[in-house]
Amino acid sequence: MKRGAALAAGKKVGIFAPGSPASPQRFEKGCAALRKLGFEIKVPLDPSAYYGKYDFGFASESVQARVAALHDLLADDEVAVIIAARGAYGTLELLPFIDFDLVGRSLKPIVGYSDVSTLLLPVYEAANAPAIHGPTVSKEFAEYFENDDSKQSVDRLMAMLCDPGFRFEQNAKELRRGTSAGKVVASNLTALTTLLGTPWEASLDDSILFVEDIGEAPFRIQRCFEQLRLAGKLKKLQGLVLGRFDRCEAKHGPSVEDVFSWLVNEILRETDFPVITGFPFGHNGLNIPLPLGAEAQIDSGTVRLLSSPVA
Fold first, then answer.
1. Residue 264: burial class (beta carbons within 10 Å; 0-12, 13-18, 19+)
2. Pairing state of beta strands 275-277 and 173-176?
3. Could you tell me the pTM of the whole model?
4. Structural domain boundaries enclosing 96
């Protein structure tokens, strides 16, 4: 993995909405938090202009305008990092039109989660550039001064971007014991599955896969894992880390926890890598930033980050 330059105070943070529009109030609160943390911002396209409107379907602007905003931020030498305003839906539309050679040349870390995973995965694989599954402007940054989980999420992200020596270790619950090491691949589960069969399908071999999701019924989560298994994506993993699956409760039938048991005992029965659950990343809680392609280790339920996305 190629690494970007470490972020210094006073450098510009670029912001755009690859998917859905952001609430004007939440977006402005997020921008204000960034300024108070000592960073200038550049917003080439207002992420909130079409909030509550459907001129572009579920998206914040036209495909052409969103791609142009991303290219503008990538080409601007004063912009050091690009953070998504929001996730939701719409990022997938951009992929055929993004100049991934430009992404690879700029080496600017791109940060986001949820629907933004459909951009992060090809940024890491197709462009070999830094991509971080982490906080967005209208969520964690907007809540920086109100919510301790959001503050910790942002503080960890900024430490990761500013300090090439930043590392962490985090304990979680073992569903299947083991010790392993591999490269980090972190994604929203639905987004990861959506890329199967496309030119941007993720390679998961020799990786520790981190997945999370929100608002999906347990049977849909099981279906995603079944599809990944049938596509051959799970058999060469070095580890699987399950994050937060928020608002995924069942109205009736098996729960998400039941799905995870099925995952270990049936879907993964021909594998032996460690499986961890309850890792604090994803929607609505502590969202530990995870740099795709960085080296990580699992040891007796402890996840350790061993390398940095910046130099």
1. middle
2. antiparallel
3. 0.97
4. 12-162
